[in-house]
Amino acid sequence: GSLTINAAQTATNGTIKLSGGTLTDAAGITLTSPAALTGAGTVAANTTLSGTGTVTASAGTLDLLGVVNSGLVLAIATGSASTLKIDGIATAAAAITLNNAFQTLEIGAAGSLTIGAAQVATGGTIKLDGGTLTDTSGLTFTSPVGRTGAGLVSANIATTSNTTNAGILTS
Question: Is the pTM of this model over 0.85?
Answer without folding.
Answer: yes
